[in-house]
Amino acid sequence: MRITNKNTKKLRKEKVYESESFKDGKFTKEELKQYGLPDDEISTILEYQALLPILQSDRNDSKVNARDLHKQLNNGWKFTDWIENRINSYQLIKEIDYFTVSRKYETVKNSGLQPKETLDYSLTLDCAKQLAMVERTSIGALVRRYFIIIEKAFKNRTNWNQNRKNTLINCKELRGALITKREELLNGVPEWITNGNLYSIEFSLLNTVILGMSATQYRKEHNISSNEQIRNYFSEDQLDDVERLERYDAQLIISQEIYSYEERKQILQTEYDRVKNRKTKWV
Fold first, then answer.
1. Taking Cα atoms as reference points, which of 29, 66, 24, 22 lies closest to residue 44?
2. Is the dihedral of CA 243, 246, 251, 252 positive or negative?
3. Which position among 69, 160, 198, 209 has the lowest Cβ density within 10 Å, counted as fewest Cβ atoms?
4. 192-222 per-residue burial string, b: 16 or more CB within 10 A, e: under 16
């Protein structure tokens, strides 16, 4: 009779892994603080994003509905008076700075329907931003402050992403290995690790090798909240270590078929110490 060993190990339920290492989209207070911006500049950027969402498209060829912009500017003007004034005052060019579409509709009057026609305006994104900047209101002042300081925030974000570019590229290689050998790797995870997300388990392993302590200890020592990624606080040397070890880890999984968590941790630690000692020797 054939005997089959039953696996009594509890199956892990994996969660979707979400990375916050690469920055894009709207700025958050936490991100801007990481760049060292003063509180007043952070408040300006966040207030602009909240009050003028219509101006925050990532595409320069986007069109902005002039009526929606007028509503968000809240300048007290009647729309038709405002748009005609701005077109004439700033010599806006039709079909270049703005576009018009005639729209017909019906209204109820004296128990009957009366046809009407209105003119809708759309603005290029650059034109819409310019009109917002020239408003003589508190929102106009906010927009002007925003465009003075936002370049600094984007420059910091560009540098941040560039410093993590190579890490993210190699992370894709490691993720590919984790996906390909998912079942084997899950079986190689020790019982004491209760987090069922394979990505976070593997990245925590690498972080522990580089830091010499657990992520929990590192957060406590550096006063980092639980919803922030600790790699956002790594030095450039540590990010270089991440890049190298992620690539090496992927090779261990795919080429050498080493699925044991503890075995890979020992090999990665040896490799990290070897390179670290070599760096120290030549300092």
1. 29
2. positive
3. 160
4. eeeeeebbbbbbbbbbbbbbeeebeebbeee
Cα three-residue angle 178-184-188, rounded to 5 degrees: 100
pLDDT in tens, 182-201: 889 988 888 888 665 788 88
Query: pLDDT band at residue 2, thresholds of 50, 70 and 90?
Result: very low
Q: What is the pLDDT of residues 33-90, one digit of tens each?
A: 888 899 999 999 999 999 999 998 877 778 999 999 999 999 999 999 999 999 999 9
Whole-angstrom Cα distance, residue 279 to residue 209? Answer: 16
The model's pTM: 0.59
